[in-house]
């Protein structure tokens, strides 16, 4: 009977060791699965945040581009208006100019010695093109500044 009891105890002991070993492996597998799931969830959250940030930045960039395009269209409209105004002669340009003498001997003292100074046609076109270029560059600079400020505040650069 002692041998039978000893055999039963040994079998139960081996069974208990096998059960504990199996529980340890199942627990390890469970912990590994949890860690993998947590990593995948963190990765999904990171990708979701990146996507949201990308969308927000794209929306802001689109708004800035819209403002830039509006400013550019306004500059072209102003240029066309300036060209029309100059062509009609209803507006003038302030320039530092001298009048060409009409060929007569210079008068003793100051006086009118020629007609009203006027820009040549190429100079008028160049002036309006320069005005449009200045407005375009101003709009570009403002757009770049807005983009940089937006990126700086979003990405927390320098903190």
Written as H for each helix and E for each strand, in order along the chain, the element string is: HH
Major sheet details? none
Number of H/I helices: 2
Oligomer description: single chain
Low-confidence stretches: none
Describe the structure.
The chain has 159 residues and is mainly alpha-helical. The protein has a domain at 50-92 and 118-159. It is built from two helices and no strands. α1 runs antiparallel to α2 (121-155). The longest helix has 87 residues, at 2-88. The chain is rod-shaped. The chain starts with a helix and ends with a helix. The model has no long low-confidence stretch (mean pLDDT 80).
Features:
mainly alpha; 2 helices; single chain; Lysis system i-spanin subunit Rz; I-spanin
Please render the helix and strand layout as text.
Elements: H1 2-88, H2 121-155
Helix pairs in contact: 1-2
Summed up:
With 159 residues, this protein is mainly alpha-helical.
């Amino acid at each position: 009977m002692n041998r039978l009891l000893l055999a039963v105890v040994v079998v139960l002991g081996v069974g208990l060791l096998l059960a504990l070993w199996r529980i340890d492996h199942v627990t390890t597998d469970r912990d590994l699965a949890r860690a993998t799931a947590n990593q995948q969830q963190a990765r999904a959250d990171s990708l979701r945040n990146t996507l949201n940030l990308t969308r927000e930045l794209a929306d802001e960039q689109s708004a800035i581009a819209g403002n830039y395009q509006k400013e550019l269209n306004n500059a072209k409209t102003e240029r066309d208006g300036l060209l029309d105004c100059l062509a009609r002669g209803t507006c003038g340009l302030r320039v530092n100019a001298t009048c060409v003498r009409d060929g007569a001997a210079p008068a003793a003292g100051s006086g009118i010695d020629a007609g009203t100074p006027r820009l040549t046609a190429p100079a008028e076109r160049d002036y309006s093109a320069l005005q449009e270029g200045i407005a375009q560059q101003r709009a570009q600079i403002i757009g770049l500044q807005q983009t940089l400020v937006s990126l700086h505040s979003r990405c927390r650069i320098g903190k």
